[in-house]
Amino acid sequence: MKAHPERLFVFRLARELGMSVSRLLAELDSREIAEWMAFFTLEHEEREAKQKGTSQDLSEKFKAAVSGTKGARRLGSPKSRKPASRNTNRHR
After folding, report:
1. pLDDT at 79
2. Which of 22, 86, 88, 92 has the fewest Cβ atoms within 10 Å of its own Cβ atom?
3. What torsion, rounded to 10 degrees, do the Cα atoms 34, 61, 69, 7 define?
4. DSSP letter string over 8-53?
5. pTM of the entire structure?
């Protein structure tokens, strides 16, 4: 499990939300899981900053991480997104 940190995160998130891993994966899409990962990472960074006496704005960092704005650290990559469907019934 240590070799797969994303899988470990899914187990921790399932425990945090009070559901099984299979239920979590059925109910949350990859984007929401990535957002949870970003949230917990930034929350951890904020706790560390407070312990060191520096201040960080969690809400602004979270918005940047989730929206993928310049300078934000992107966390996780959505693996389960379905490709856009193509219209195979083209008229000639």
Report:
1. 45
2. 92
3. -20
4. HHHHHHHHHHTS-HHHHHHHS-HHHHHHHHHHHHHHHHHHHHHHHT
5. 0.56
The answer to whether residue 48 is domain-embedded is yes
CB 33 within 8 Å of CB 5: no
Q: What is the dihedral of CA 29, 9, 16, 83, to 10 degrees?
A: 0
The answer as to whether 32 is a domain residue is yes
- 76 token code pair: 């996780």
User: DSSP letters of 49-74?
Assistant: HHHHT----HHHHHHHHHHT-TTPPP
pLDDT along the chain (92 residues), means of 10: 88 96 96 94 88 70 67 43 44 43
- Number of structural domains (the chain) is 1
Q: Establish if 80 belongs to a structural domain.
A: no
